[in-house]
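Section: protein folds

Sequence with per-residue tokens
===
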Amino acid sequence: QVQLVESGGGLVQPGGSLRLSCVAPFSLFHIYIMAWYRQAPGKQRELVASITAEGRVKYADPVKDRFTISRDNDKKTAFLQMNSLKPDDTAVYYCNADSPPFSGLPDYWGQGTQVTVSS
């Protein structure tokens, strides 16, 4: 079963930066919507950012102007650049590949990578 592979998480001080990567090893990567979710302890999983196959992006209000989502279709990789990190950004971050509507293709998830923002 295909699984997305995230990397780049870790411990960072407030105001610092991290770049998450998500390798998606399946051939139709370029037609999928790629997204990053996060789940903090005791909270529900929430959408952080998404990018369509055409490159249109959306961000959750708490991360606007601080996070940037991007993708490299040749490398089948999605990225999340996180700047000006805050303690409230502490969570497990998950990569998601969302199949086109009515395509019958499966969706994929990664196992998650821990991001901790603390001094």
In short: The longest strand covers residues 91-98. The mean pLDDT is 95.
